[in-house]
Amino acid sequence: MQLNQFLLLSAFLFCTGVYGVLARRNAVLVLMSVELMLNAVNINLVAFSAFSNTVSGQVFALFVITVAAAEVGVGLAIVLLIYRNLQSPDLDTIDQLKG
Amino acid sequence: MIAQNVAFWVIALAMAGAAIGVVRSRDIVRAALYLVVVLAGAASQYILLAAEFVAWVQVLIYIGAVVILFLFGIMLTRSPMQTETELDNDQRWPALVVAVFLLGILVVLFVDAFGDQTIALNDELVATGRAASVGSSIFRQYVVPFEVVSMLLLAALVGAVAIARRD
Description:
The complex is a heterodimer of chains A (99) and B (167).
Chain A: H1 3-23, H2 27-52, H3 56-86
Helix pairs in contact in A: 1-2, 2-3
Chain B: H1 2-24, H2 28-48, H3 52-76, H4 92-113, H5 123-129, H6 131-140, H7 143-164
Helix pairs in contact in B: 1-2, 2-3
């Protein structure tokens, strides 16, 4: 298998995630798009690990998975708090610093 | 080699379609279920790359825990289930331009840098992906990052409870 096919797949997933983060208004959907981007990075790490036949890339992928789980936990707690204060999960409603 | 390539492209196409579904779906629960397809596809790509331990961790943590958290988040914030354009803001076209531009740069870079490099699938690679080799690498070479990550998880756990607590 070519190394490139995995890299191109992960590039596509990453760019889809970028689009989602920029274009979505609902906070939960923005977090989902962030997960897409983290998964793209993981595919890259595992592909390079197989390419160089070392285990380091897989270990880093495991660390990324752990950090992603922590990020989702804290992120959803923040979204919940915003919802409780503003009665809306939309990120556009958080504009208290806007003049 | 042919069979792996066919499997790769079938799974990759499913993942690409589902990823577009995640960012374009008008139904937020459906977007979460499209995310399951992408995560399961990533797990199968890990299996194709002979990284079986990472693949099963992906299934357990992402599909088992993270997606359930997302569904809880959707329910607790009473997100609109069936709406027209409520889930998107008005930056759709600039966002598309940014994403396509970034994709173009990445594709050109990857093709230029790794044009004809191949991944050799052999027994050595399969042995690398086994839980025993991953585990011994974590607990020998990467034991300090491992402890840091466990502290991070503890901090995130306490932080999530402290943030979401009602008082």
